[in-house]
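Running low. Any example?
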Amino acid sequence: MCRYTEDQGRALGLSGWVKNTRQGTVIGQIQGPAQQVNSMKLWLKNVGSPSSRIDRAVFSNERDISKLEIQGFSTRY
């Protein structure tokens, strides 16, 4: 799922990272304009990668920031 998530994040002009966990879930951090972040959240919750099964999406630790803390969008291993 990470490759598709990374592509979607870049297409929306977001910064952040994603990582597959050993438990079969995906974690990450997303930064950018609120409208694009909301679009990404909807994509993660309803679309995802072609091979993924989305049981639920949990978003936490949301906050406003004055400038990006991460540059680019990447997959972590």
